[in-house]
Structure formats: C-alpha cells, structure tokens
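Reminder to self: tokens first, then the designed residues, so the page reads top to bottom the way the pipeline ran.
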C-alpha cells in the first residue's frame, strides 16, 4: 500500500509541474524559468542525499553517460518544454508528453536493440492518434487545414529529448545510485541554464511576486526532487515494471489540477487523454526486458 501511495504522489507532483511552469513563465523568460527550477531542484536533491554525495572519481568514471543524459536529454527537454509552454496550454502539454512511453520504446529499440512486439506498435499508433486529436482541438475536420500550434510542436520536440533521456538513464545509470545520477544530470541542466543567463536579461529577484516564488519552490522541490525521491521509493518496493503504469496518471493529474489554476478543460482533452492512455497501456501489456520507467519533468 505504501508503494502505491508513493507512486501516486510522485505522478501528481509531475502533473503539477505543467501548471507551475506556466505561472513562472508569466514573470520570467524560459531561460530564467529553467534556471530557477533546477537551482531549487539541485538544492533539494543535495539536501536529500547529503550523506552520500558523489565524489570526483565517480563523476569522472561516468562522465559520458552523465553528460549525454544531463546536457542533451534533460537540458534539451527543459529548453523546449519551457519554450513550448509559452504557447501551449498545460493540459495540451501534459497529454503530448504522455506519448513518452511509446517514444521510449522506439528509441530503446534503435539504441538498446530491444525488440518491439506487434502490440507495442499498435499502442504507439493509438497513442499518436490521441496526441493528434488533442492538437486538432477535437475537430477532425481541421486535418485538411492543419496548422500546428507553435507551442504544441515544441512540446513534441521536447518529448523526443525526454524519451532519449530515459533510454540513456537505462544505458548509463547502472553503475551509480539513482539519487546521485539524478543529482548529477540535474546539475548539468543547471549549468546549461547558467550559461544562457547572460543573454536572457535576468529580472531583478525583488520584483517577483509571492506566487512566483511559491511556484518555483513547488516545481523545484516538489516537481523535481521530491517527485523523483517518492518515485524511486515506490519502484524499490513494487518493481519498475509494475510501477511504470503509474506514469499514465500524469496527464490525468494535470487535467484535474487545471481546475485549480483557472485553465479550461475541454471534452477533447478527456477524449484525447483516454486514447493516449489506451495506447500507452497496450504498449505496457507485455513489457520487454529493457523497458524504461524512470521519469523526470
């Protein structure tokens, strides 16, 4: 029962991220938003694992995997995630990102050489149809005059980086603890945003509202550090294969939480979400030996 509670709480925090990011982006640009998220996130991860922080020898030994996962996978995802949210709704973004398990299967096949079953191909197709339905705002007739929302396209690109991130976690994260691997890859992301800060015209911190700081604390400490921590506790108890199915709660969490953030929830969101989840459930039906289930949003 504890494992179920840990996993549900983790996915609720991950769904909350989409709304908190929108609040942050009302006051700062996407570069500064990413910087504050990972400053708080890394700080919280250091606090959680201060007794077993990684040493320089461990970092040097795993530098390739840490760099690929952190600078390309995680940093790439967050750049397009924040950019996309500037022009896409939180619910749309959450539903599109829920395609991640299907994309992960495809990248796992190409990079890790895992097999793909017919049921997985069917699941990928159904999930993609769900995403398309959301992008079309539930109007299939819009297909002939299809004009992708700029933000939706960026979220789709972010999703590609997110899937690569999970594959690289599977490939390179076996020789280092999960907590330290996430701390180090999150630190790479923080460094990436720090390098971009000089060109972003960073706002004076005294001008930010209380709502901004609450959202920043939430997305960094809850949506990054604590969500990961709770997820790992749940996985440790119940196993990765059984825990992975709980990732499907993320778009539902974002949709339900939309009510508390004055964001409209439409019928096509629910229908598209159902189709996506159905597709993802089919891909999870008979998981392959190298399935990837580690999240970070």
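Designed residues (297 positions):
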């Amino acid at each position: 029962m504890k494992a179920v509670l840990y996993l549900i709480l983790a996915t609720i925090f991950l769904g909350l991220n989409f709304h908190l990011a929108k609040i942050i982006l009302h006051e700062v640009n996407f570069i500064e938003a990413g910087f504050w998220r990972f400053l708080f996130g890394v700080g919280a991860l250091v606090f959680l694992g201060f007794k077993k922080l990684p040493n320089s020898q461990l970092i040097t030994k795993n530098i390739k995997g840490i760099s690929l996962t952190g600078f390309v996978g995680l940093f790439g995802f967050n750049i397009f995630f924040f950019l996309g949210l500037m022009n896409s709704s939180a619910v749309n973004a959450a539903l599109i990102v829920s395609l991640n398990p299907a994309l992960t299967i495809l990248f796992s096949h190409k990079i890790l050489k895992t097999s793909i079953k017919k049921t997985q191909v069917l699941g990928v197709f159904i999930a993609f149809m769900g995403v398309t339905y959301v992008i079309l705002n539930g109007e299939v007739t819009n297909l002939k005059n299809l004009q992708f929302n700029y933000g939706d396209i960026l979220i789709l690109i972010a999703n590609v980086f997110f899937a690569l991130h999970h594959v690289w976690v599977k490939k390179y994260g076996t020789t280092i603890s999960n907590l330290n691997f996430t701390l180090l890859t999150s630190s790479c992301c923080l460094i990436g945003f720090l390098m971009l800060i000089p060109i972003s015209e960073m706002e004076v911190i005294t001008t930010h509202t209380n709502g901004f700081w609450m959202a920043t604390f939430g997305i960094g400490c809850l949506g990054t550090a604590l969500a990961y921590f709770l997820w790992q506790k749940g996985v440790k108890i119940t196993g990765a294969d059984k825990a992975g199915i709980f990732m499907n709660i993320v778009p539902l969490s974002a949709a339900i939480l939309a009510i508390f953030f004055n964001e409209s929830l439409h019928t096509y969101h629910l229908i598209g979400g159902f189709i996506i989840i159905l597709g993802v459930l089919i891909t999870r039906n008979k998981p392959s030996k190298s399935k990837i289930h580690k999240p970070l949003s």
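Confidence is low (pLDDT under 50) at residues 287-294.
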